[in-house]
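Aim 2 progress update. The chain analyzed this quarter is reproduced below.
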Amino acid sequence: MKTIKFSIPLYHVDVRIVQLEGKKDKKSLAELFKKCGIQDDEAIENIDKQYADGGYTYRNFGRSDIVIVLYPFTNKESKTSVYFHEKRHVEDRVLEHCSVNDIEASAYLAGFLAVKFMELYEKVKVCKNPYK
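Predicted structure tokens:
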């Protein structure tokens, strides 16, 4: 499991991007969810089901946490699409939570998040059979 953690200072939100690499990450993901106050057994079960090429964005604004879970990827196109799909969810949820309706603020946040997402994106390899 590869993870990066960062804060969005202006909005006081902590973000973790979690790239799962296989079945060995099940326990670590469960521990992270507990730490962040996220309750979702389905995400953990999806590891056993060998989900790939997808992701999900969780939020707990009571604790100012966002966790993006990315399943292993089997091709570059899926990886790119899912990374930036989930990035958009972070943008929307943060701006909605903070009642921001400003295109320039949205654009700055998009740029900030792009840099952060790319840090992990560049470290992740695709694998035809990620659960083997």
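The chain has one domain: 2-121. The CA atoms of residues 35 and 119 lie 23 Å apart. These observations will guide the mutagenesis experiments scheduled for the next reporting period.
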